[in-house]
Recover the amino acids of this structure.
């Protein structure tokens, strides 16, 4: 909430709210990233709680983070971070975020493919490119989705089912890129 892009949609388009509580441009919209190159690579985070504001953490309540059943979660050998919020005994209601490095060319190829092949919508907030899509879970009456944000060779990739805290992605962006 409160961290939606400030540019309203054009007169012939309509925007919608994402599960993150942010405004999304109309379907079919794409944004070309124009990141400013940095001389020093952005440091990838190593703590799944530290990348979130207290307001976002409060929305997780008693949802477990990086349960031992998710053996590859937490900081990884390649420097990436995998955060898994969810009870391993639950059929749904989970959120997984991977923060990793990816160069501009492969990142743009991937994001463009998501737009062309899977109907994602992209826009350019916070100096990067954000793509997202939600859909109805095929087994349960809940919403699933995926949100990606790329900037300065860092990709934040979140997949979720029935768990989409308001301001989640924006909180991570603020922490990583400050």
């Amino acid at each position: 909430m409160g961290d939606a892009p400030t540019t309203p949609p054009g007169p012939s388009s309509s925007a919608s709210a994402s599960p993150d509580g942010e405004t999304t441009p109309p379907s079919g919209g794409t944004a070309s990233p124009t990141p400013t190159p940095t001389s020093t690579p952005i440091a990838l985070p190593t703590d799944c709680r530290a990348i979130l504001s207290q307001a976002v953490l409060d929305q997780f309540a008693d949802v477990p983070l990086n349960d031992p059943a998710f053996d590859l979660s937490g900081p990884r050998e390649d420097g990436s971070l995998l955060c898994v919020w969810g009870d391993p005994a639950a059929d749904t209601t989970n959120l997984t975020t991977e923060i990793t490095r990816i160069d501009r060319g492969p990142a743009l190829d991937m994001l463009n493919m998501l737009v062309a092949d899977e109907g994602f919508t992209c826009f350019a907030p916070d100096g990067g490119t954000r793509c997202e899509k939600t859909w109805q879970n095929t087994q349960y009456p809940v919403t699933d989705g995926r949100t990606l944000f790329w900037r300065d060779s860092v990709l934040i990739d979140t997949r979720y089912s029935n768990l989409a805290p308001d301001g989640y992605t924006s909180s991570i962006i603020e922490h990583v890129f400050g």
User: Anything to note?
Assistant: The longest strand covers residues 143-151. Confidence is low (pLDDT under 50) at residues 1-28. The CA atoms of residues 18 and 24 lie 6 Å apart.
